[in-house]
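Q: My labmate handed me this sequence with no annotations at all. I'd like to see what the chain might look like in three dimensions before we decide whether it's worth expressing. Could you predict it?
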Amino acid sequence: MTARVFVTHQLPGERIHELARFCDLNVWMGPGLLPAATLRAEAAACQGLICLLTDRIDRQLLDAAPGLRFVSSMSVGVDHVDVAALTARGIPLGHTPGVLVDTTADTAFALLMAAARRLGEADRFVRQGKWAADTAWAPDFFTGKDVGGATLGIVGLGAIGQAMARRAAGFGMRVLAWNRTPRAVPGVELLSLDEVLAHSDFVSVHVALTEQTRQLLDARRIALMKPGAVLVNTARGGIVDECALAAALADGHLFAAGIDVYEQEPVAADNPLLGLPNVVLAPHIGSATLHTRALMADMAADNALAALRGAPMPCCVNPSVYAPGGAREPG
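A: Here is what I predict for the chain of 331 residues:
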């Protein structure tokens, strides 16, 4: 029997077309994001699923899809997936690490620069017609913070955190970092998390969202940050307490923030960050270049192709399913 595979969005890249040769492939064509109820209905008769980080793969979905044999996510993070539930059922989960490291670090540093130099505020000032003849230039006109020679604190020294450190070195920045497990990186000083926050002019978040890192930067830790510091988050929204961050920005404890990820996505209309002028906001576009997104889609397709062949996925989150009695081959 030919395996049925459902893809939750149209994907770029070339490998998705090859995948169609090996299975009965069905692709959600939109419009918009795939509703959860539609995903459950589509997955019910499928053996394979290729999803995005916007698709919640939970126990309810798995209960509705008893024939599911593999899941391949076009993402690095898998906090949208109940990994334990998949592992308990012997279902391998693929993801797409590595290819978006530099692209995401570029986005993080771009947000850092934009927040430091108040580019979001300046853009709005010009577009709204406020730069009029009677708005005289003055020494304090849109003054921001210097990046060159400042201190960058990196929270999470994985591949993206290390790429951020390399970019900071080009600006002559002192780089401090905290990592959950000690990791020696040339040019980076390892300190406790509280010390990193207290001594950094800029703080950039690069840890995965887990139960251990959820609300890692809470009100207490945000209060520890250096007065006038800038916070950048391109990791996951749940790592930072958004209400505490908004309060610190509103009362002037923090100078600015650059945010690409939110606890609720799409961002809620009542998110307190939306009403603040000193926040540069982006809609989760850390990996959004044409080249990187195509590579991610190809990796997701390659994981699915391996699963269809009954082989281990090249990039598997839960490789323990390949132990004897683990993953089941697609029927």
